[in-house]
Specification:
CATH architecture of the largest domain: 3-Layer(aba) Sandwich
Shape: elongated
Strand order of the largest sheet: 3-2-1-4-5-6-7-8
Number of domains: 2
CATH superfamily of the largest domain: NAD(P)-binding Rossmann-like Domain
Number of strands: 8
Bound molecules: NADP nicotinamide-adenine-dinucleotide phosphate
Order of helices and strands: EHEHEHEHEHEEHEHHHHHH
Largest sheet: 8 strands, mixed
CATH class of the largest domain: Alpha Beta
Helix content: 40-55%
């Protein structure tokens, strides 16, 4: 049996890169011998290589020599200090960046000879293959590169091509969105405790209710407003609760949270 050379290289091997590698191998989209990786200090890369059977290559020229596609998966703040040899070594390669807030034109300064650059914005459910990942590219993707992007982002969950102008809003809606939802679950749990439930019961009810409601929404394909109205009877308990939410300006508060996050994303992507 002949061993193939790694065609997909990972620069950075933290939480997200680990989720991608594990997803790709679980889906048999790539074999371990197709994947190679490095990290700043080598420890996380060696750990990932040991856990999954992919190769660890600390030497940058050797890492990138055979690679066709490079997943850039370090922290956004590491970009400025990244190895300057990357500019030459990534010539002709497809770059897939998961760096939050780093624009295509900024990425193009670091990878000027890449055949194309894809900017993505995964969210934390990526860790269990349940992400939604909007992405955009510097130039139109060829059919071959589109297939590569689909395969790699598919390891994290769903993916959605979108114009770059939407990326700041995306960063807060789907990027920060899980945190907003966790905050809602915590509030529902705390409300349950205040209403007299034992904490463990309130926690389970809050989680399972959000999970079940989200599944119902996805399953029915209808709007949240229609499903909400199906729970409301005139002057009933849900009605009373929703009235309290309106009085507390729930929708306006969430809208302001999204706008504040989008403003911050715009500031950060200019940095
Ligand atoms: N986690 C998510 O769900 C999520 C969601 C959206 C976007 N992202 C994006 O994903 C990226 C990675 O996040 P993470 O949570 O996976 O980070 P992380 O767990 O902190 O891992 C960062 C990795 O980058 C490596 N690294 C740092 N500088 C490097 C360099 N110059 N060259 C090569 N490797 C370098 C680190 O190496 P050492 O371990 O050797 O120091 C480590 O393996 C970020 O850009 C973030 O914006 C993550």
């Amino acid at each position: 049996m002949t061993m193939s050379s790694p065609t997909l290289a990972f620069l950075g091997t933290g939480n997200l890169a680990t989720a991608i590698v594990k997803g790709l191998l679980a889906q048999q989209a790539y074999r371990p011998s197709d994947l190679t990786c490095t990290s700043q200090h080598g420890v996380t890369a060696q750990k990932l290589a040991l856990a999954t059977g992919i190769s660890f290559e600390p030497d940058l020229p050797r890492l990138l020599a055979m690679a066709d596609t490079v997943v850039v998966a370090f922290k956004p703040q590491s970009l400025a200090g990244a190895d300057p040899r990357l500019a030459e070594l990534t010539a002709g390669k497809l770059i897939i960046s998961v760096l939050a807030g780093k624009k295509l034109d900024r990425l193009a300064q670091f990878f000027p000879q890449a055949r194309n650059i894809v900017r993505t914005m995964p969210n934390t459910p990526a860790a269990i293959g349940a992400a939604i990942t909007p992405y955009c590219s510097l130039r139109s993707l060829t059919a071959v590169d589109q297939a590569i992007v689909t395969k790699i982002l598919g390891a994290l969950g769903q993916h959605l091509p979108l114009a770059e102008e939407y990326m700041d809003a995306v960063t807060v809606v789907s990027g920060s969105g899980p945190a907003f939802l966790f905050e809602f679950v915590a509030a529902l749990r705390d409300g349950g405790i205040t209403a007299g439930l034992p904490p463990a019961v309130a926690e389970k009810l809050a989680l399972e209710t959000v999970l079940g409601a989200a599944k119902l929404l996805a399953h029915t394909g209808t709007t949240p407003e229609i499903l909400r109205d199906q729970v409301v009877s005139p002057n009933g308990t849900t009605f009373a609760g929703l009235q309290a939410m309106t009085k507390g300006q729930f929708r306006a508060t969430i809208q302001e949270a999204v706008l504040a996050g989008a403003r911050r994303a715009a500031e950060l992507s200019r940095a």
